[in-house]
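Quick one - first record:
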Amino acid sequence: MPKIKLTKTELKKQRDMLKQFTRFLPTLQLKKQQLQMEMRSCQARLDKNREARDDLNGQLDSWIALFGTEGTVEKLTGLVNLNKIEMEWHNVAGVEVPVFVSADFEISAYDLFLEDAWIDDAVENIRKLIELRAEAEIIQEQYRLLGHELRVTTQRVNLFEKVKIPEAKESIRVIQIYLGDMETAAVGRSKIAKKKSQEAAA
C-alpha cells in the first residue's frame, strides 16, 4: 500500500477515490460482459462460415471427382477473380471493428457450348467460397480486436476490484483510526489541562 498522509484532507481524497472507483467498476464489468458476448457471437459466425465452406468444398470435390480432368481445378479458379472487398466499421462495445458487406468479382468469359453443364454451378460455388473466406478473415479480425479490448478491460476490472478499491478502503480505515486516536488524545489532554487549571485556582 502506498504511503498516505494521516490527515482529514487525505481522508476526503481517499473517500472521493473510493466513490469514483465503485462508480466506474460496474461500467467496466458491463463492458467486459458485452465483449465476451460479442466474442462468442464472432466464434459462432466463424463456425457457421466454416461449415458453409466445408459444404461448398464437398460439392466441388464431388463434381471434380465425377467430371473433372487434369487441370480442371486450375481452370475453374482462374475463371473467378476477386476485385475488392467492401466493408464498414462499426462500434461494438466501444471497439471499432470491420464488418463484411460484400465482395466484388470478375468472372472470366467461357463458352457455354464447349464447357460441361455443371461449370456454371462450380463457378458460382467458387465465387461463394472466396466470398466466405474473405468474410471469415474479417470476422477473425473482429475477434482479434475484441479479444485485445477484453484483455485490457479485464485488467482494469481486476485493478479496481483487487487493488484500488481495497487500497482506498484500507487507507480510509487507517486514517480514521489515527484521527480517532488523535481526537481521544486531545480530549484527554484537554481534561488534564482543565483539571490542572482548576487545581491551580483552588
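second record:
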Amino acid sequence: MAPDYPIAEALAEQGWWMQKAFFSKPLTRHLYQEVLALWESGDFRQAKIGPAGSALRRSKIRGDLIRWWAPEALSAAQESYGQQMEHLKFLLNRELFLNLAHWEAHYAVYPPGSHYARHVDRFQDSPERMISSVCYLNPDWDEQEGGQLRLFTEEGVVEVLPECGTMVLFRSDIMEHEVVAATRNRFSIAGWFRRRPEAPVRVIHA
C-alpha cells in the first residue's frame, strides 16, 4: 500500500488523491477474473441516478451497469480488498476526524460508448457519503481506449487513466467528476466511505 500521510494531506489540501499500482497484481487479477465472470453471467443491472427510493434510469447521463457487494457474503478477493479499505477508513478517521462508520462498494462496468456525465456523489438530502473511491481492474489499458475519470478541480481538469490497480479517492461532497466513454468494456470498483447518520458533518480542512 501507499504511504499513509500523503493520502490525508492530499484530500485535505486538494480534495482528491491518486496512486498507480496501489493494489497488488495478484489481488487485482483475482478481482478482474471475478468481475469478468459475473459480467459474462449477466449478473449486473443498469445503474440509476438519484437517492434510493426515487432513483431513475437515465442512460444518456449514466451508462454503467453495477453489481453491489454483499457485506455478509464477500468473496476471498473482496475480503482482501475490504481489509485495505478498512485500513484507509482508520487512517482517514485518525487524520481527518471524519466519523466514518463503514464503506460500501459495487462492481461497475461501462460498455463501449457509455459514460457518466459531470456530477458529485453526495445527495443534497443524504450527507452520509464523505469520501468516494475508485479502483480500476482492466489489464493492459491503453490511453487511446478512453475511459478516463475526469476530475474538475480548482486547479483545472485532472484526467486519470483507468489502469489496473490505480486507486483514486476524492471528496464526495464537492468534487465534480465524469467518466469518459471508452472503446471497450471498462471494469472498476466504485465505493464510498460513509459517516454515521447521527454524526455531525465535518468539513475537511488542510
